[in-house]
Amino acid sequence: MVVQEIAPASSLTARLHRLVVTVDHKQLGLMYIATALLFLLVAGSMAAVIRAQLAVPNNSLVSPQVFNRLFTMHGTTMVFLVGMPLVAGLMNYLVPLMIGARDMAFPRLNAFGYWMFLFGGLLLYASYLAAPGLAGHGSAPDVGWFAYAPLTGRAFSRGHSTDYWILALLVSGIGSMVSALNVIVTTVSLRCPGMTLMRMPLFVWLMLVTSGMILLALPPLTAAQLMLLLDRFLGAHFFDTQAGGSAVLWQHFFWIFGHPEVYILMIPAFACVSESIPVFSRKPIFGYPAMVAATVMIGFISVSVWAHHMFSVGMTSMGNTFFALSTMLVGIPTGIKIFNWIGTMYGGKIRFELPMLFCLGFLVQFLIAGLTGIMLAVAPFNWQLTDSYFVVAHFHYTLVGGMLFGLFAGMYYWYPKACGRMPSKRLGLWHFWLFALGFHLTFDPQHIAGILGMPRRIYTYDVGRGWEMYNLISSVGAIFQALGLLCFVANLLVSLRRGALAGDDPWDAWTLEWTTTSPPPEYNFETLPVVRSRRPLWDLKHPEDPDWQYE
Amino acid sequence: MLNNASLPLAATSAAWQLPSRRKAAVAWLIVTESAMFTIFVVAYLFYLGKSLTGPSPAQVLETPIISTLCLLGSSVTIMWAAGAFRGAHMARFRLWWTLTIGLAAVFLAKTATEWYRLITVHHLTISTNVFGTTFYALVGLHATHVIVGVTLLTLVLALSLAGKVRQAHAEHLEMVSWYWHFVDAVWVVVFTVVYVIGR
């Protein structure tokens, strides 16, 4: 029985008011995810325009200036306003439920984090209206998502578009750090009795590591952005090459943030996959301690690989060797993970539900992404392919084929918990096949275009370079991705009303979030649970053969 | 809903104790702040001797002995204040706490006069050369943290004078002192980098 709540007023204003004042981790988690999906549609449309422009040679759908703004805003939005809030949303919603807590450690701080993220996002998009100011300079940021110096200097980036980029990311970065801090403290201090560290669901472990990485990796970006602000407004010379400043230093500072950031986005996808695969294979996760160790290892190694983004900048051969080797080292813990997921499926009774389909897509695509990553880690190979479409294909393979597929799996897996209704399997299958097809059509040919020498970030290309067919296929793929994405959004909205009632535990799962109602009451648990193993719900369902007898 | 049928209590659950959430939060805040300071320190070291024009650190910087002693001393006085608070000696607590604020204020005043001298006498501003750029950024970032710390300390003092600080707040005060010790520790690094190695 859920304690009867006082009947809330249901007028639109009352509901909006509740959204604005809420400090409930579940409500905030859903707000993060909903906002992120809105930004996903915006940045996805930008990608569609980019693909339309590149579909045929010598196209003039958009001007070069607009094209630069499009890829800058697309990248910045996808990383900071889609990836990060999706991660924040999932961890906000699930971590307290999974460790048997009633809320996050600091609920108000949690709300603060969400609003900082939202205002950061709005600030970035306000640049379209406000950045030209009186001077008539460019509107949105157009310096690329990594904003290399000296392009961002006052002399080369007139007007305020770059300032909007800096300030928007500063603000939303504070939001990310606050929510990461909250997740860490919640995990450290609010676990229910018996939930020792090695009994936490892998999801919580992985989110813990991600949060730790956010707290270590985002401050360098904040610091570098503060320096850039000083450069632009007070005439400092951090990245001003004319006065002894160093453009390469910006690259170092940015990638000290930027590379861990990739893992910050990937590890939550691992987290979703690590929860889904066991449940849909009807086996406990294979090699739990190894998974934890591998995640921590990825966290450690990821802070020492940043300069593999800079092989072509002219480092010493010692530097190149170090960063090539450390980058390849990441393959070991990542490989451990992939083997463990396969080990979990091996001999299991696999149920091909929607989350599992996305997990399988994730496994294949992430493996390929990892392999092209190893290729790019070889410095001489990198010299050939850096800044080409091969790189574009590689990181879209990780972030779309890997991260997004993993997060889709997670969103389908926990949708019944959050909304109380099952997602439609038919729409979900359409989503999966359309999106997978579109993904491969778009990004597989880009590998070849890159090897044939097509540089990234060009707004058009000439006939006869051999890139035409690959670009056309790529652009056709974008249509399928868009259709798939629409099926996903439609599924989320339609199933909210029409989906079959889910009940507490529709997937027959084992972790604590499935012990409470769907959706959970505001206080999550009437009595705080007590756990004795990694699968408390299994123990509850099978008192004759509980896990704690074996662990 | 299954959760009412709580699982059998483990024998050890009576002793279930987790770290305080305040301590965990401030500890991680310090970690993340350290990451940011590291970048500024790295930038300072990277640009040492790379200025295209003068003045150079050796020409204009003087070792800030008094302000360093003040800041280090304030870490001791805040410790004594915390000790007095634990012993419920409120008058002594307020005395040491006020002294901490005073020492911090002296530090800030000394920084202000140092900057005034550098700007007016030596014409070193943030845009003069990369030494000016990195010096004002690093020392300024630290001074900003001192200002935040002084604000927190003053707030606690005001609340205590209003009688709002009770024994229940012992951990809150401890957290303020953690932050203060951190600001102090950063100064040790800044001092070493800017005034010892950097000259």
Q: Could you write a compact summary of the structure shown?
A:
Chain A is mainly alpha-helical. Chain A has 16 helices and no strands.
Question: Any overview of this molecule?
Answer:
The complex is a heterodimer of chains A (551) and B (199). Chain A is mainly α and 551 residues long. In chain A, helix 3 runs parallel beside helix 13. Chain A contains 16 helices and no strands. Chain B has helices at 21-46, 57-60, 65-86, 90-120, 130-161, 170-197. The relative contact order of chain B is 0.16. Chain B is elongated. Chain B contains six helices and no strands. In chain B, helix 1 runs antiparallel to helix 5 (130-161), helix 1 packs parallel to helix 6 and helix 4 (90-120) runs antiparallel to helix 5. Chain B starts with 20 loop residues before the first helix and ends with a helix. Chains A and B meet through helix 5, helix 6, helix 7 and helix 16 of A and helix 1 and helix 5 of B.
